Recover the amino acids of this structure.
């Protein structure tokens, strides 16, 4: 259903030509002030991000040992090795599996929560704050808490016990459950942030459209799929691409909760990079090559998701 | 949250990058004292980094350093506590060229830093300032030796013995075990309901005591390949895992509702564990009501065996105050400090002259630990040890989880370890 809303006419343009010269002088002063304001960030970006990125790129073509005095150029060898490096392939598979499940579930979950909160249910503010709570806490703190939740005699098994399922499954040392356990934890903590984004976008959708569709006799489900979701496209793109970026960088939970185990079941690319960088000091070049590959993958996926999701909306 | 992390990781990389470009040399200020031949004439400022994850240990180190400055008023020590990720921090500092003058040198830091020329050869300084290698327990000196040079001195050590729960043993009508046959049958008798006779973790830092005791080795004698898949290693792993798999008399700590074997022991969910001296203060502080004893690990089929974990003090190769740093290392690994370490119950002294100290002879558990050093092997495997240990841990874990048989698991682990050693 294509909806058309006439764009607002631009405000008075008549005097534009007359004031130009005076405005031009002001514009330069304003531009200077503007530059001054963004300067700290630009310096920060150039020194701490762009320089680091360029340096990492340079290192990825060298056999680079943190402690060695001589680090020879090796061309593409670090990259070539990734294709046969078992750990990298395992990490890539784990991370992809993780990202696919988490991005889909957290987006759907966040959208459902937002739609629920957007309807005029009682205690809306209460739900909004409580659902958002997990997103405030640091991921390290949440991971520590979930160590107890997933403990064989922890909260999860106690709750399962109450409903008659008695188990002492140690989720984080099971090759079957460790990765899903971390997936669940992350969906639970990040979905509420995206819920807020959806909620803001939902409240921007003009009420007239819904009213018009009600007059036409559209059902609630029809309205969700024909109005809400299409109009939320830009925000769905944002949520999916932020989700992809976040998921491919999954690190802290995997480090704290399982340290990549059991049997590499939760070894992620970022964790592997960290291990190569700090634990195996001679592998900085490999770590940088892995980081560059990961960066390219994230960049490509974001572009693809933009193609697929973020098509122009016509009001 | 991941975004936040990535930002901080980029920041870290950038700091490392900027650091290595600028090469900010701030290794100790002024003084020098290179020409001094008398201890009292040595002067200068040294930065000394210790792993400070434990507040008690931290304040003890601080006290020793204050005592040192009282003894050597011309030398100033600046304590740098690194609460966590000690080695990561030191490595980054070394790569940026601003590491402290003196620092804890773990065996793994030694494995990276000495071949790279980042640690100071202490040999000439030891003879200059009257430190003899004979003062220390010999097996504790070898981890810091490379090509006949000494790159660190041991400050303390820990090794493995068998701890057993006295009340659980007497309740089951059992006497103190003296052999592995005893331990195996006792473990079966002690396993009832939620309690297991023993808790053997999927950890090479425990299993390797068995491996060496069965005559196996982790690395070939020239250290160029992993060899822990021969028939001796298979027998050792079969025995180690038979407690859990065949006898059902052992379980992993987290299956027993504990974070590590010592925790399972304290909670009385495991009647025996193989642990080190850290158990003594831990049990006193956390589970004071549990009555326990210890025995040296009984002789394995081939020989007596235990694992040594040791930590030392060393100096940066770039320090401008070599003499001050050496005197500091001498003091921190000397008798005065180690006697206090011993009394605090943190670790065992690395010095021979403290072997007859009442703190050791009067406590049978401490004595077992100290005496085990004579047959224990230092647990250190060179620059690739993190991957070698990963491979070993994965092998033990896959057998314990029933994913693989002993031979397949060890063959795969050795292949993984060898590909790491050859730079794969």
């Amino acid at each position: 259903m294509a909806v058309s809303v006439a764009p607002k006419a631009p405000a008075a343009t008549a005097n534009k030509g007359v004031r130009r010269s005076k405005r031009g002088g002001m514009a330069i002063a304003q531009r200077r002030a503007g530059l001054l304001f963004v300067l700290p960030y630009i310096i920060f970006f150039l020194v701490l991000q762009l320089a680091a990125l360029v340096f990492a790129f340079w290192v990825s073509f060298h056999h680079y040992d943190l402690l060695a005095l001589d680090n020879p150029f090796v061309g593409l060898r670090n990259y070539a090795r990734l294709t046969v490096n078992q750990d990298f392939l395992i990490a890539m598979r784990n991370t992809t599996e993780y990202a696919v499940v988490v991005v889909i579930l957290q987006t759907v979950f966040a959208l459902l929560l937002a739609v629920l909160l957007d309807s005029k249910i009682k205690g809306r503010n209460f739900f909004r704050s409580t659902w958002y709570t997990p997103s405030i806490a640091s991921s390290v703190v949440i991971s520590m808490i979930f160590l107890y939740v997933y403990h064989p005699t922890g909260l999860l098994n106690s709750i399962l016990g109450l409903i008659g399922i008695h188990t002492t499954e140690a989720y984080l040392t099971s090759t079957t459950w460790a990765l899903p356990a971390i997936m669940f934890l992350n969906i639970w903590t990040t979905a509420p942030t995206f819920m807020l984004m959806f909620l803001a976008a939902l409240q921007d959708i003009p009420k007239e459209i819904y009213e018009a569709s009600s007059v036409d006799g559209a059902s609630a489900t029809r309205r969700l799929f024909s109005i809400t979701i299409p109009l939320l496209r830009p925000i769905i793109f944002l949520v999916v691409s932020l989700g992809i970026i976040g998921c491919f960088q999954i690190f802290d939970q995997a480090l704290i909760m399982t340290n990549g185990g059991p049997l590499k079941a939760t070894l992620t690319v970022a964790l592997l990079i960290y291990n190569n960088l700090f634990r195996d000091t001679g592998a900085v070049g490999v770590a940088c090559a892995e980081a560059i590959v990961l960066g390219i993958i994230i960049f490509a996926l974001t572009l693809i998701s933009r193609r697929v999701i973020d098509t122009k909306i016509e009001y | 949250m991941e975004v936040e992390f990535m930002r901080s990781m980029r920041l870290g990389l950038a700091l490392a990058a900027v650091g290595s470009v600028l090469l900010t040399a701030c290794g100790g200020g002024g003084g020098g004292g290179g020409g001094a031949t008398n201890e009292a004439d040595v002067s200068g400022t040294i930065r000394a980094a210790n792993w400070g994850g434990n507040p008690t240990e931290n304040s003890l180190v601080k006290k020793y350093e204050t005592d040192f400055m009282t003894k050597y008023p011309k030398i100033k020590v600046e304590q740098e506590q690194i609460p966590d990720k000690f080695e990561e921090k030191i490595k980054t500092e070394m790569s940026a060229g601003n590491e402290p003058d003196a620092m804890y040198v773990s065996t793994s830091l030694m494995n990276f830093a000495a071949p790279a020329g980042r640690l100071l050869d202490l040999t000439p300084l030891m003879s200059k300032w009257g430190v003899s290698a004979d003062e220390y327990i010999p097996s504790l000196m070898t981890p810091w030796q490379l090509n006949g040079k000494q790159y660190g001195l041991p400050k303390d050590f820990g090794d493995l013995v068998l701890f057993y729960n006295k009340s659980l043993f007497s309740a089951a009508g059992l006497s103190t075990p003296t052999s592995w046959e005893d331990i195996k049958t006792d473990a079966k008798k002690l396993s009832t309901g939620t309690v297991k006779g023993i808790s053997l973790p999927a950890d090479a830092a425990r299993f390797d005591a068995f491996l060496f005791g069965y005559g196996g080795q982790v690395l070939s004698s020239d250290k160029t390949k992993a060899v822990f898949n021969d028939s001796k290693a298979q027998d050792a792993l079969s025995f180690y895992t038979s407690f859990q798999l065949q006898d059902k008399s052992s379980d992993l700590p987290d299956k027993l509702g504990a974070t590590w074997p010592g925790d399972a022991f304290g909670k009385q969910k495991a009647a025996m564990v193989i642990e080190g001296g850290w158990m003594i203060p831990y049990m006193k502080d956390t589970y004071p009501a549990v009555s326990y004893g210890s025995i040296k690990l009984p002789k394995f089929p081939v020989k007596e065996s235990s694992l040594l974990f040791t930590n030392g003090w060393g100096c940066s190769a770039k320090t401008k105050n070599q003499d001050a740093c050496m005197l500091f290392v001498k003091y921190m690994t000397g008798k005065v400090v180690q006697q206090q370490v011993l009394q605090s119950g943190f670790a065992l002294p690395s010095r021979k002259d403290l072997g007859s100290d009442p703190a050791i002879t009067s406590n049978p558990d401490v004595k077992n630990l100290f005496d085990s050093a004579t047959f224990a092997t230092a647990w250190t495997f060179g620059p690739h040890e993190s991957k070698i240990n990963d491979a070993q841990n994965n092998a033990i874990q896959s057998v314990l989880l029933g994913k693989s048989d002993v031979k397949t698991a060890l063959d795969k682990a050795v292949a993984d370890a060898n590909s790491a050693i050859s730079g794969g």
